[in-house]
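Researcher: We're teaching a course module on how sequence relates to structure. For the next exercise, students receive a sequence and then see the predicted structure as tokens, so they can try to spot secondary structure elements on their own. Here is the exercise chain.
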Amino acid sequence: MSLSAVWIWAIIAVLLIIAELTTFTFILSFFGIGAIVTAVTTGIGLTPDINSQLIVFALTSIITMLLFRKMAKRLFYGTSDMIPDYIGQKVKVIRDIPASGEGSIEYRGSPWTAYSDFSENIPEGSMVEIAAIEGVRVKVRQI
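Model: And here is the predicted structure for the students to work with:
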């Protein structure tokens, strides 16, 4: 028993959408949509041969990706234009931060390695403001 072209495109669509759910690249889902549209157009007889099916698949996939990928990423990941909530938070120094070295702050109940561009030591017990978090280090500035 051989599968019809409609079923083949439907299976491809399901596999692509499942693969997208495991990767969150926001690319495979658009190819899945292209496969769904191709399955539908093949089912209603608009794309009877493989060449027309491939054209519909490619065009639908590319057009939906160009139109909706940014929107989908923004919906799931937010925008990078937003200022992170930690910027400007006031925190306490729990180990001196020397002018050219690292110390520690307490942020959200945990100690963090901190450094500053300030040319003087920042003593333990001082309050500082978070300027950035770079990996596991926090850049602070004096208040």
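Model: If you want an answer key for the exercise: The chain has a mean pLDDT of 89. The longest helix spans residues 50-77.
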